[in-house]
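Supplementary Methods S3. Complex input for the LMY7XDAE-bound model.
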Amino acid sequence: MNLYSTPPTSRVLDGKATAAQIKSELTERVSVLKAKGIVPGLGTVLVGDDPGSKWYVGGKHKDCAEVGIESIRRDLPDTISQEELEAVLDELNADPACTGYIVQLPLPKHIDTNRILEKIDPAKDADGLHPMNLGRLVLNVGGPLDSPLPCTPHGCVELLLRHDIELAGKRVLVVGRGVTVGRPLGLLLTRKTINATVVLAHTGTLDLAAELREADVVIAAAGMPHMIKAADLKPGAVVLDVGVSRVEDEDGKARVTGDVEPEARNVASWLSPNPGGVGPMTRAMLLANVVEAAERQAG
Ligand SMILES: Nc1nc2c(c(=O)[nH]1)N[C@@H](CN(C=O)c1ccc(C(=O)N[C@@H](CCC(=O)O)C(=O)O)cc1)CN2
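Predicted complex, serialized as structure tokens:
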């Protein structure tokens, strides 16, 4: 009997369908803004020609077109200097047609990423990664009414809440301490409105299996294919698979896979597919940040 010969016992945290629902809500909000003469616009800054990054940026512009957001695109060579790149950000900061923008990560090694993120006007920071907006998250003031939240952490929480998964009092294991996902996710989940108890695991964690056995919810964002073993999960755990790795399957074809072993589908109560789980939610939350920035700018 192989893995797929029996139906999975877990339910699917369907990011694609949830993102489609959010996009239809945002389309309504964009119409309201347009009726007031405000046209939201998302800018993207892409440096170099990494195929994955190009695909993500293309997807962002496709999403914008779907909900009625205008697109501004700056595709730049990977030979660009720090100063030249900062000058592009100055232009976007000053452009009234650009409500919000992102700089696609990762950037080439010769570019100081932190300096670039600091250069973004915090009011136009569609990724919620400017230090002021991350600081507001620490201070517990970030959110739709006042400042943007980082897209993937927000997407994870929204995906759970829209499936009525209770987080208050639950032990949530976040695997990965990166600045775009793990760290801000820990801050978001420990807000009083969510009230989870968070364990943040990383490469220095001594016994990941022991942490997995205790966790009610696991959010895997390490970017290491299948590092979360089904046998280590607490039966009935809720599992979000955030990590994205490109691997080759048996016939040499490249495909995307996540951090969680496929067998988890027979142990978890809920599991997000990868692809089709948190990725589409990341894209939807980016659009939400642009719409919210336009709504704030409209007063
Ligand atoms: N400036 C940013 N850079 C990066 C971010 C980010 O949020 N802001 N996150 C990732 C890349 N990313 C968005 O930019 C992203 C990753 C994955 C997906 C997605 O929809 N994935 C699909 C599968 C895609 C595939 O087949 O390759 C899925 O999960 O269904 C969207 C956006 C790093 N950089």
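The longest helix spans residues 15-35. The pocket of LMY7XDAE is lined by residues 55-56, 102-105, 127, 151-152, 180, 244, 256, 274-276, 279-280, 282-283 (CB under 6 Å).
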